[in-house]
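As a point of orientation, let us examine one representative protein, giving the amino acid sequence and backbone structure tokens.
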Amino acid sequence: MKPTHIACLFASLGMAGSAVAADPFFVGNWAFTAAVLAPWADPHRKPDDAERARLMGKTVALKTGEISGPRPFSCVKPHYKVTDYGPDMLFQGAFDEMYSADKTVDPKALAVSLGFMGTHIRTLETGCEIDLHFVDDTTAEIGLNYYVYTLKKR
């Protein structure tokens, strides 16, 4: 084999190795940038704004072996699984529960109102209390109590 072929072979192996070793798209720092009242919130009950105020501007760090951030988002040993959810399964099935209680509720329309497009929404199951639903590679949403929080990747 010629030296140039060997060099190309090693170069291509090096590129493949670095692609395999790259962190998943979700690893990194995610900041709370917005919060809206969740569709499942009781309209007759004013939610406590203290939690929302405490979280805004804070960062959640998704690492390969842990999640760090404000309560209840930290987790010592997450078990990550990326999957696609339908609109009905977002926020731990909240939209499906709403539909079950009232057939006029449209889970897809609710998802669209929060920025999700299509019928397959990439979701990160963490094995902890919270799942992240991705609007795109740099925007995720999390449901907590009566709010849907937007996180932006930093």
